[in-house]
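Subject: Interface between my chains keeps coming out wrong

I've been trying for a while to get a sensible model of this assembly. When I model each chain on its own everything looks fine, but I need the whole thing in one frame so I can look at the contacts. Pasting all components below, labels as-is. Any help appreciated, I'm running out of ideas.
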Amino acid sequence: QQQVKQSPQSLIVQKGGISIINCAYENTAFDYFPWYQQFPGKGPALLIAIRPDVSEKKEGRFTISFNKSAKQFSLHIMDSQPGDSATYFCAASSNYQLIWGAGTKLIIKP
Amino acid sequence: DSGVTQTPKHLITATGQRVTLRCSPRSGDLSVYWYQQSLDQGLQFLIQYYNGEERAKGNILERFSAQQFPDLHSELNLSSLELGDSALYFCASSVAGAIHNEQFFGPGTRLTVL
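Reply #2:
Try treating it as a single job with all components included. I did that and got this:
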């Protein structure tokens, strides 16, 4: 019940396309859902986060869609650019511990 | 640059040995988190300290221990090392102890156990 399932494991998208990464959770007590971006050789960095009282949050080309009833949330990257190539992690939490998805390696082809 | 520093950057040691990883949080951050990232895997939360006290514990082995000192830097001690402990170890810090506070990650320490 503490798991966060992330898919796909890897994703290749053409430049200018839309990248979509999905996550699902079981624990209804989770109330904070961040997405982190990690470049090779670096630590993860917070990209965008959402609380379950909203269904969507947009920051620039990045959007989180949240479906509370389905216990799913997803990251959409519009107009994907080669610089977006990185590993993306979703996470969820209700207390002091973030439960992380396994990560999605995103490659944007020029 | 997140402002979180970790030393050393790389560490190579043998099975059975003990190592200490060091983390300095961002200036003003009171909370420190430790994570383990194995090859091609996600992050496993190990432990969190807030202002010198243990706040939360994750999947941390009994062979591992950590502490946060009065100057807020933290150390992760790994003992009786096994091959399977080879991984990237990240430290993160946040301004307070609440989980919705953004965590800022350091560059990591790559541990190789031979």
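Reply #3:
Confirming on my end. Chain B has no helices and eleven strands.
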